[in-house]
Design a protein that fits this description.
Blueprint (H helix, E strand, L loop, with lengths): L1 H21 L4 H7 L14 H12 L1 H14 L2 H19 L12 E2 L2 E2 L15
Antiparallel strand pairs: 1-2
Length: 128
């Protein structure tokens, strides 16, 4: 099942790229900006709760769809592209095992804990 879900997310990434080409943007622009939504990690400079909120805003597929639909409604191809970019980035993250963040720890996601300890079924965050 895990492989099937990863393949589904890879298909979403390809769909976002195809949408970018359909809108008439250069082929390389999608890849050049694909990691831009990770700038949402800067929210962690203001604490774990704010960081998780900002990060999740940039990585929620529903937000990406709304941005794209608003762009479609307004006839704004740049907003449509932004929606596709957000959607493609979040799909790529999901395919790689990264999910939306809980506010207790950066490595705690809706897909589970990330990091080397997570493969063993447990993870203890380091005490500060």
């Amino acid at each position: 099942m895990k492989i099937l879900l990863k393949l589904e997310d890879l298909a979403k990434l390809v769909l976002a790229y195809a949408g970018t080409l359909y809108l008439g943007f250069e082929w390389w622009l999608f890849f050049a900006l694909l990691l831009a939504p990770d700038l949402g990690m800067l929210g962690y400079l203001f604490g774990s709760k704010a960081g998780a909120w900002v990060y999740n805003l940039f990585h929620h597929q529903g937000v990406a769809i709304v941005v794209g639909l608003v762009g479609l409604y307004l006839g704004d191809t740049y907003l449509q592209f932004a929606g596709l970019l957000l959607f493609g980035h979040s799909a790529m993250d999901r395919a790689l095992g990264y999910g939306l963040k809980y506010n207790d720890h950066f490595k705690h996601t809706h897909l589970g804990w990330i990091g080397p300890q997570s493969k063993q079924g447990y993870y203890k965050p380091r005490e500060l």
